[in-house]
Specification:
The protein is of the alpha+beta class and about 325 residues long. The chain has helices spanning about 5, 15-30, 35-45, 50-60, 65-80, 85-90, 100-110, 115-120, 125-140, 185-205, 275-290, and strands at about 165-170, 170-175, 180, 215-220, 225-230, 255-260, 260-270, 300, 315-320.
Length: about 325
């Protein structure tokens, strides 16, 4: 491959994504198997060499690291939501022995499977919450690095008509990472922060409760302050507030926060992430027509799993903008 070919791997494009999506989908549907590179390459009709390079460029990790992470995420969820033995869970996640699973699990989560199960959910979780957590882990783990993946890098205006709905939102505890970035760095920042939050939640036994999102705290001419995040379950007596307990205050630290309760203007965007500004423009136009003012920063929630839907036209993103009633 020439130098010019190599440069195309620096930023994932829709062409690269389409080439490796069959391998991503196979891995996402097979968290109980230790898939080999040859099997993934055959599914994508690529050589093992080219699949490894393209896959790593799109997913931000090697095929081996990707499939191992999915298997361990499944194992962690089963430890918290079932009473099956550690050995049964290990075998069900494609490990050949209790020892192999324990070693890999300890490297990923900094504790043994038994210690992880004994600690349980750190913020409390009812049976329904635990079941939802397991489902969300299965849905989010394969695509947590793919939200905001670039398509062809040439944004075009969306031709869709936006249906604006006014909703009354409940307060939602979340984990976020705050980043200050250039517009050209948004995709990379989200692709780096969401896996970090996902790993943090799993490692600390925090039950997940919904789709990942990104909140746009400040939008300037040159830089933006964004907060990629994950919805969580928190049944502790005092729910977290905007200034809730923090794991750290520096950029890149995981912070406990909330998406606020109250009225919000919402719409669903269908299409590539590059055309999301059209959804925000539609919301602003609607608010002006209704003489409504924003009461806080907006956020977008990623509804569709890109690893299962290769066509960007099928990607759905809900945009919410809190308003003063």
């Amino acid at each position: 491959m020439s130098k010019s070919d190599d440069s195309t791997l620096e930023q994932p494009s829709n062409g690269l994504f389409a080439r490796v999506q069959p391998a991503l989908a196979l891995a996402a549907r097979s968290p109980d198997q230790d898939l080999r590179l040859a099997a993934l390459a055959a599914r994508s009709r690529l050589s093992a060499f080219h699949l490894h390079r393209m896959f790593s460029a799109v997913a931000g990790e090697t095929p081996k690291a990707y499939t191992l992470r999915l298997r361990l995420s499944r194992g962690a969820a089963l430890l918290l939501t079932s009473d099956r033995s550690v050995l049964d869970i290990a075998l069900d996640c494609g490990f050949k022995s209790h020892e192999a699973f324990t070693r890999a699990f300890a490297r990923q989560f900094a504790m043994t499977p038994r210690a992880y199960r004994a600690r349980g959910f750190s913020t409390g979780a009812r049976a329904a919450d635990a079941a939802a957590h397991a489902s969300i882990v299965q849905q989010v783990a394969p695509c947590v690095r793919l939200y905001h993946v670039r398509t062809d890098g040439r944004p075009t205006r969306s031709e869709m008509a936006y249906d604006i709905v006014k909703k009354e939102l409940d307060v939602q505890p979340v984990l976020v990472v705050r980043r200050r970035v250039k517009r050209s760095e948004i995709a990379a920042a989200i692709g780096g922060a969401l896996p970090h939050i996902f790993q943090y939640a799993q490692q600390h036994g925090i039950a997940l409760a919904g789709h990942p999102f990104t909140r746009y705290v400040e939008v300037g001419a040159g830089l933006l302050t964004i907060e990629p995040g994950m919805r969580i379950v928190d049944t502790r007596p005092a729910p977290p507030s905007v200034n809730a307990a923090r794991t750290g205050d520096g950029e890149g630290s995981v912070i406990e926060d909330v998406l606020p309760a109250g009225p919000a203007a919402t719409t669903v965007h269908a299409g590539a992430y590059e055309t999301l500004p059209d959804a925000y423009a539609a919301l602003e136009t609607w608010m002006e027509s209704q003489s409504l003012r924003a009461s806080g920063p907006p956020w977008e929630s990623y509804i569709t799993d890109p690893s299962e839907h290769p066509d960007p036209k099928e990607w759905k993103t809900e945009v919410c903008w809190p308003i003063k009633d």
